Amino acid sequence: MQDVIRQAVTAVSTVVLGKEEQIRLAVSCLLARGHLLIEDLPGMGKTTLAHALARVFSLDYRRVQFTSDMLPADILGVSIFNPQTREFEPKDGPVFTQLLLADEINRATPKTQGALLEAMEERQVTLDGVTRALPEPFFVLATQNPVTQAGTFPLPESQLDRFLMRLSLGYPSAEMELKLLSGSDRRSQAVNLAPVVSREQLMAAQQAVDDIRASRDLIDYIQRLLAHSRSAGIFVAGLSPRAGLGLLRAARAWALTGGRDYVIPEDVQVVLGPVVEHRLQALSGGAVATATQKLLEAVPVVRRQ
Amino acid sequence: MARVYQVPQHAFIWLMTGAVMASLPHFLTGPAWLPLFVITTQVWRILVQRGRLRMPAKITRAVVLVGAVAGTLYTYGTLLGPEAGIVLLVCTFNLKLLEMFKLRDAYVAIVLCYFVIATALLSRQDLLISLYVFAVLGVITAALIGINQPEANIRARQQLKYSLVLVLQAMPLMIFLFFVVPRVPPLWDLPIQKKGAKTGMSDSMAPGEVSSLSRSAALAFRVDFKGEPPPPEERYWRGLTYSWFDGTRWSQAVPNDLPQAEYMAYPGERNRDWYREVQRQQVGKKYNYQIILEPTRRRWLFALVTPFTEQRGIAFARDSRLINADPVRDVLAYRVESFTEMPRGENIPDWEKAFNLRLPEEGNGRTRSLAQRWRTEAGSDEAFIRKALSWFREEEFYYSLEPPLLTGQQIDDFLFRTRTGFCEHYASSFAFMLRSVGIPARIVAGYQGGELNPLGTHLLVRQYDAHAWVEAWLPGKGWQEFDPTAMVAPERVRLGLAAALEAQNDESFATFNDLVGISGLPLLKDFMSALDYAEFQWLKLVVDYDTDAQKGVLQKLLGDVSPMRIALLIGAGLGVVAAAMGLLLFWQSRSVPLNWWEKEYWALYKGLQKKGIPVSDDLGPLALARLATAHSATSQPAAKAWLRLYNDAAYRTAYQDKTTSGVALSSEDRRNRLKLRKFRKEMLRLI
Q: From B619, which residue of chain A is nearest by alpha-carbon distance?
């Protein structure tokens, strides 16, 4: 199981160069049954990553480009009148897929954003009173432009909370960029990737995440992190219990990608930033990443008497 | 009508239990219809709670209330006074249970319940009732906690647990306040009938009266000796003297025209000549003891000769007795210092001499003439007394609890016909003989003996230890004690009544044993004596702690007792109790102690720090091990082994598998701890 996952990570890395950690985090997010938000400028390889993940994990893949004139029906689907049968027939929207790339989600109006996030949370869609389950597995990889850009509708905190992780790919290193430029088109490479993980294997891996052991000491560590985020006075509001559960889940998945069947504090430390940063606001107005770093430094890994 | 407040089930159980328990002690003192009343209302209330009945209508409640008032009036003839008041209180409290429409009513009922149980202490203050009151307090508090938790699905037992914890927590505060808070004397006197004041000495004695007293095993008083108690034959507890004889009955009396100052001296008025004389002549062995007297409703107190006390309100009487200023209604404790010999009065005042020589003009002629003949033969008073006592010893006299009835000239009849009697017969006839030859004599009534509690140092004196003996005044020697009963039945004085009756083969021995229950099970006897010891300590420590004792304690603590200082002391005491509670809570909230592997982590942490490697506590064990390897590649195997062991202990287990503290280490754990320590030392050595 762990070998398959490691192979999958390696396979994706041949397409998205020099981003092993982000790829591993993205895979962890997928294994943890969470949704992923990638915040990056255009052209950083988000779509390539989505393509590659879909291929390697043998998932159906669809992409929706969000715009400001988009309506919920454009994502969820509509009922269309069929003159032959004289009946309304449901026509599924792009959400009925296994991996949905929601590109530039913050360009759509809150109403449309809401429709997608609703579907993400419930893993089902209700059209004209008929409720239909979304395919299994269902993984949303949303991208968003940094909110400082004009013409965007920033997602409110409650909706950001629906994403297990937020990542940023960032510019490649000089070495990787050279390799990138000298190679062939990444997008077509991604499409040509061979599937590594079958759908059944993915489901089994998702199941395995639940069985990764988290000891009392480790859960105690997570709890102390949560408690400190609430009492330390570095954030506007502390972490919610849902964030705590997400953190543990992500740490389990990360431990699985590392080939371990138990969680160690380092797993928590790695996933802490991606899991909590989009849920927090630094009190002093500084960067939330710095504040999270402070949180990490302030809480001893092992209890102190 | 508004919705009726439904007492939560978990509170209801405790409320009803508390109500029954609070009413129970009053069943013993109250009228016979009270239990019926209480049970009826309680059953009704339970049926209401179950939804089988409705709360009684206003008119029904009014009728029942009028009934309760009428019943009380019928029983006591009045609604005033504590007994009637308590019965009314118990009735109305139980009625209140049937008038619970709002949450507020439940609160009222609970507060009333506290009040009802407090009134149980008005008539008794012994250890058992006090423990009972504590138990009831726990139950009522459980009900109070219960109605403050309206949620369903709460287990009633939990409430009782909370409540007991609360009551226990309040205990130190209660003890402190008990000792320190000034007691305001009651604004009115509560003349409550105390139990246990039924039997005892009376101010006169006729044949048959002491022996009837001896059929009771009720406690008369307890004595706590500082040091060794005197031997049984010296334990003569004097209570009162009878100087007046009318031919049948001996009575206590003083001459009409005598001022009180001539025969009684309270502390503070002890500059009288006769008292100084007594005080000057303290001779004999000294005994220091405390007597805890059960209520007698009489003023005389019991003590050995010659008793001295400095306790306020206790007078010294001229016949070497102690007399309380008021009738003893509650348990009374007093400390006495006794000297074993009577004061050697050189002179006897004329009034006293005349008083103790007086006899009826005629009657009992045979005794008179016998005594007068002996006196002439003997030649001196002392010789006469010896002669008379040896006569009692040598002639066929019998000691019995059930002497035959005397007829006609009672003393003649006894001395020459029946010759079977109890102590009062012997004392009475001996005193008569003395008086008839001109020796001043009087009868002393009190108790003789007492049984040492095997657990404590204290002596138990019971009603069946009642005794009467004689004192005669001899020139140059003063008053001397003589016990004719001891001549007839020496066992009575040395071993007690039961032994004496047995030795005399008296028929009444069996009846006496049945009555007193001496031949009971030994285990039960042990238990009873243990209980008595606890009771004794309780009386000494708690019940006896009155305003005077408190003043003593405060004086010892504060020196000068001023309201300001008392206030400061109370404040300080409350502060100390609150601080102790705070400390306890802090101690409980303290985090769980570290596990062995956690201690190991910090040991490595400090070890690396000592080597000058910058470490911070956000580094996990993995990061620490890496840090060590980064500084010295040779330590890698040790670091790897250390990390593996650490992870096994700390992280490789599911959450529930390991308890963190309070459990003894398994041998595997102990081995791993040693290995972990070894690898750490190796790792640090290689850096």
A: A301
Does B652 touch chain A if contact means CB atoms closer than 8 Å? yes
Res B168: pLDDT: 87
Domain boundary among A149, A184, A203: A203
| ipTM above 0.85 for this complex | no
Tokens of A113: 């954003």
By DSSP bridging, strand B321-324 and strand B300-301 are antiparallel
Cβ-contact B412, B248 below 8 angstroms: no
CB-facing half-sphere around the CA of B176: CA atoms within 13 A: 16
Which residue is associated with the tokens 């069943």?
B27
A305 within some domain: no
> DSSP string covering A176-234, please?
HHHHHHHS--HHHHHHTPPP-S-HHHHHHHHHHHHHSB--HHHHHHHHHHHHHHHHSSS
Residue-averaged pLDDT of chain A? 85
Last residue of a domain, one of A156, A171, A203: A203
Q: State how far the Cα of B240 lies from the Cα of B201, in Å rounded to an integer.
A: 9
Q: Residue range B612-640: average pLDDT? A: 86
In a domain, A254, yes or no: yes
Q: Is B219 on the interface with A (CB under 8 A)?
A: no
Within this chain, do residues A39 and A161 fall inside the same structural domain, yes or no?
yes
**One-letter amino acid identity for B573?**
G
Min Cα–Cα distance to chain A from B594, Å: 7
Contacts of B652 in chain A (CB under 8 A): 213, 215, 262
Which residues, at least 6 apart from A201, have a Cβ–Cβ distance to it below 8 Å?
A1, A4
| DSSP single-letter state for residue A282 | B
Q: Are B620 and A265 a contacting pair at CB < 8 A?
A: yes
Residue A128, domain member (yes or no): yes
Same domain as A29, residue A106: yes
**In angstroms, rounded to a whole number, what is the distance separating the alpha carbons of residues A43 and A25?**
20
Rounded Cα gap, residues B390 and B486, in angstroms:
11
Q: What is the pLDDT of residues B376-427, one digit of tens each?
A: 998 888 899 999 999 988 888 888 877 888 888 888 888 888 888 888 889 9
B26 is catalytic: no
Same domain, yes or no: A219 and A198: no
A105 and A170 within one domain: yes
Find the residue in A nearest to B601 (Cα).
A302
If asked whether residues A154 and A229 sit together in one domain, one would say: no
* Number of domains into which chain A is organized: 2
Beta strands in B327-486 (DSSP E): 332-339, 398-399, 420-421, 441-448, 451-452, 458-462, 466-474, 478-482
Residue B648 is among the residues annotated as catalytic for this protein? no
B618 → closest Cβ in A216, A217, A297: A297
Q: pLDDT (tens digit, 9 = 90+) per residue, B509-566? A: 666 666 555 545 566 767 777 787 788 888 777 777 777 777 778 888 777 778 888 8
Contacting residues for B419 by C-beta, under 8 A, at least 6 apart: B395, B396, B397, B398
Tell me the residue range of the domain where A134 lies.
2-203
Q: Is A111 found in the same domain as A28?
A: yes
Shared domain check, A44 and A158: yes
CATH of the domain at A270: 1.10.8.80
Give contacts of B 562-621 with A, CB under 8 A. 591, 593-595, 598, 601-602, 616-621
Residue A178 CB partners (closer than 8 Å, separation 6+): none
Q: Do A262 and B651 touch (CB under 8 A)?
A: yes
Give, to the nearest 10 degrees, the angle between helix B156-180 and helix B563-589: 150
Are residues A305 and B619, on separate chains, in Cβ contact within 8 Å? Answer: no
DSSP β-ladder status, B219-226 and B314-317: unpaired
Scanning every residue of chain B, which has its alpha carbon at the shortest distance from the alpha carbon of A262? B652
CB count within 10 Å of CB A242 equals 11
A51 and A6 belong to one structural domain: yes
For this structure, is B458 an active site residue? no
How far, CA to CA in Å, does B480 sit from each of B72, B96, B340, B379, B404?
55, 65, 11, 19, 30
